[in-house]
Fold this protein.
Amino acid sequence: MSEAAGYAVKMHHVTKKFGKVAANNDVNLELKTGEILALLGENGSGKTTLMNMLSGIYFPDHGEIYVKGKAVTIRSPKDAFALGIGMIHQHFKLVEVLSAAENIVLGLDGKVTVNRKEINKKVAELAQRYGFEMDPAKKVYNMSVSEKQTVEILKVLYKGADILILDEPTAVLTPQETERLFAVLRNMKEDGKSIIIITHKLNEVLAISDRVAILRKGEYIGAVDTDKTDQAQLTEMMVGRPISLEIERPEVKRGEKRLQVIDLTCLNGDGVKALDNVSFEAYGGEILGIAGIAGSGQKELCETIAGLYPSIGGSVLYSGEHEGIPVQERILGLKPDEIVRKGISMAFVPEDRLGMGLVAGMDMTDNVMLRSYKSNKGLFVDRKTPREQAERLIDELEIVTPGVDTPVGRLSGGNVQKVLLGREIACQPSVLIVAYPVRGLDINSSYRIYDLMNEQKKKGVAVLFIGEDLDVLMQLSDRIMVMCGGKVSGIVDPREVTKEDIGLMMIHAGESSSDSEKEGVTA
Amino acid sequence: MSAHSTQVKEPFLRMVRRDTISSQKAWGIRAVAFLLSLVTGGIVVLLLGHNPISVYASMVKGAWGSKTVIYETVKIAVPLLVTAIGISFAFKMKFWNIGGEGQILVGAVAAGAFGLFTAHIFPKLPLVLLMMLAAIVAGGLYGLLPAVCKAKWGTNETLFTLMLNYIALAFIKYLMNGPWKAPGSSYPKIPMLVPGARLTKVLGVHWGWILALILVVLAYIYFNKTKQGYEISVVGESNNTARYAGINVGRVFKRTMFLSGALCGLVGMLQFAGADYTITEGTAGGVGFTAITVAWLAKMNPFGMLAVSVFIAMLERGSNAIQTQFKIPASAADLLIGIILFFMLGCEFFISYKLIGRGKEDRHA
């Protein structure tokens, strides 16, 4: 016992397989008491699986787990809690209509009645102790993503956890919110909590952690002290070979105006404005980045332009070419098939790749012809041309698949995206809209996608790039439009502003549109 | 913390999803399931005090033993097959049409409107064509109704189609008791179709069986080779993807449900003019529901449905035979069919998943 007393958690030779795939193979992980350990790895490297075994969601096929020096069996999240292990998942599990404090005490043993005053006080104390800013009586449905995350963390702390696991906590936060979270994590560490933070953002790893453990393809690669390493070494450990992290921004002369959006407004399901007087222009030969916290209207913007979402006002003008002939159209209100019929070549890579862009259960051939099958005359579909096109895509984009007959749902995330983006590019668009194109992709695939977008830009295509990683947006885009609460808070040149400026614009536009416009000018 | 034993205990059984399975192995599992179902059924038969082997033999003989029983078996298989094809149109786009019964009944009524009342006006060929057309249109419209409502207001098609079954049934009862009641009959019934208007027999069974075989091929081509079939598959996988691809989802719902209902309506006409020669509450006789089993077991493949419907028809005929021959009660014979179908449907789980026992590692990895 004394030998292991300095360790909050030890996982030895842990293996977990799903079917034939080993998500974790003989992994060792050690978390010292009172440290912040970053668990680093690409998507699909098994980080979440490993943590799910620690928090009782999965049961390992092999291996031992020691918590605070004792060998333990964790068969359920309840077992994990009894050991003081609490996990904050990427997707929040909160009851929207309850307050923060009510969510925190939910499911705990207690009296039949709830003394709201008392629990509010207790929660407020806890929040204050670690430096969280939060109002215990606030309802969850009124909260921002960052506040919801705070509730999740407090929930775990309230139950008395001293080993915390955070699964990609910064993915949904602005730079400022991330800073605040890190400050809180440091406070918790001072208080003796042991923390594992799952992430694939290197700058964050270096900013917050004491040590870094690296996984690659389910294998444990090693652990290093944060102050003795740098981005290059970590990347190499993560990817398996040295890789350049520079994203190119080729200089291309700005072309013609391809898309003009004027005062576009639309409502969401609850009758609230999801887009509020959005105006901007997109030009050929540029990448227009669109930044904003998740749910600021990005999805509605893309889908409205693509003819998939109803608007209540404004207009969208398109000007492009179709087989050498100039085409100018108002496209707002047109259905996707009408847009195609009018000779408008606009490609759209939606956020939900397998739920909207592709048909998961169909093979590549059937997916490639999804947007073009109608052009074949007569009753029957022609699968020969799409099949050849699919084979070409496999070659050109190095898509890893057993063949064109394999359902695309079976492919890895990166390859799914290549199929989708490849198909959309193949129709030679004048305007290309891509929403979160690298979400869930490994580094290699991500860089391939950036290259493809740059190639389109060089060809004179107007690229609208909805992104979530500000670093990438700033390196790749020629201009960045920042959205907040359905409004445009400003359009800026990424070469002239800082990440913090954009972060501020992401959370400040709500008051009134005139205010936000001013802010856009000053930014 | 002492409550936690230090000994690592694995769950007794774990479910693991299979990546892929060779078709040989899949058929092997199905064969094993079939044998197990026979064994289980055999135990039931033994408990009833009969020899399972002779009971099974009598089932097969009861379905295929002589020309007469073969005709009967085919007569059961035809409506099952055509209805299953009809239902699979809707099921392929994940539109749960469980209103096959009702669509069959309105098809029969529409055919009856011509068959019973215009037989003296038209010669046989135009009359039969009229009956067919009427049944197809009536069944199609009856199937269209829930599709229109779903496309417009997003109503639940499962409840909607189910309820339509009862309306059709009640309507037939009304016709039997009132306007269409056979003159001079003491109990409610609809008169018989005159022999001159009945469907011609080809090789002993009305020509519906030829039509069914043609429909198998046509449905296969429709599903796999046409644009409309492709649209059905896309809509079935994801409405959002369909919209993204520029497919009018509501229109596909309506078009496909019309076809689905039309095929079921056609069954009503075949039953009326080819098998029963009248319309009763039992004209559909559960075919609309059994056809769902057929379509699922065949995984929406028309050729598969041909095999499965013949198989189920054989079980039904066979169960009739053992009822008379061994005095096995009808409920027990139905139980036997239930056991076999349970095993056949249940084994699909083992084709998608495998179970790993405690302490055993997945050696295939």
